[in-house]
């Protein structure tokens, strides 16, 4: 879908590679190898992204290294788009019907940025009546590809509403973190 919104498929590949890894600095040839695209197309798109301020660059000897500028005004929105198109977020959205009746599905922004998590962090939070076997299979498959555990929580709509109205500490923490709404409306999530 993103390649339908954006004119350049190369730009989409670069964004998908670099937005979730903002601390990583890559030189042009490493990006070319990672996205399997012609070097001139990669250079052109990196130049475009640099010119709009989404990428920073630095030169070291004869190499130019690029990193994402997380302070760019569109960074969070672009990261959300990438999170919905690739990885766990895309798998949840694609499997929505098999998963059951999802009212809200939230992916933590920290997870989307490949930042480390603790046992107390929730990477994926789902509200609704869910087929847990399907969800568990999706999460386990993604855990294997990632090589780390994904912390997720599922809650029925009534329990979520009850705990939210009681200012439950767990719900408050989930709602206070940066997030990408995979399913559902964020305003509705916060207002109920």
From TrEMBL:
Q: What is this protein called?
A: HTH arsR-type domain-containing protein
Where does the HTH arsR-type domain lie? Answer: 1-88
Record-linked InterPro entries = HTH_ArsR_DNA-bd_dom, WH-like_DNA-bd_sf, WH_DNA-bd_sf
Q: Organism's domain of life?
A: Bacteria
Query: Care to name a GO molecular-function term for this sequence?
Result: DNA-binding transcription factor activity
């Amino acid at each position: 879908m993103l390649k339908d919104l954006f004119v350049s498929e190369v730009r989409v590949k670069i964004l998908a590679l670099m937005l979730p890894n903002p601390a990583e600095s890559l030189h042009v040839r490493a990006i070319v190898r990672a996205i399997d695209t012609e070097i001139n197309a990669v250079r052109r798109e990196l130049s475009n992204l640099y010119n709009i301020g989404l990428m920073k660059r630095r030169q070291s000897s004869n190499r130019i290294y690029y990193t994402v500028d997380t302070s760019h005004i569109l960074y969070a929105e672009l990261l959300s788009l990438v999170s919905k198109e690739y990885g766990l977020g895309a798998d949840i959205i694609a499997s929505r019907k098999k998963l059951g009746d999802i009212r809200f599905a939230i992916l933590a922004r920290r997870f989307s940025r490949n930042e480390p998590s603790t046992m107390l962090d929730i990477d994926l939070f789902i509200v609704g009546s869910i087929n847990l076997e399907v969800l568990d299979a999706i999460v386990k498959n993604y855990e294997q590809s990632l090589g780390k555990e994904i912390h997720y929580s599922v809650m029925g709509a009534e329990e979520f509403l009850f705990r939210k109205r009681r200012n439950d500490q767990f719900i408050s923490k989930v709602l206070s973190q940066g997030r990408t709404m995979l399913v559902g409306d964020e305003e509705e999530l916060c207002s109920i």
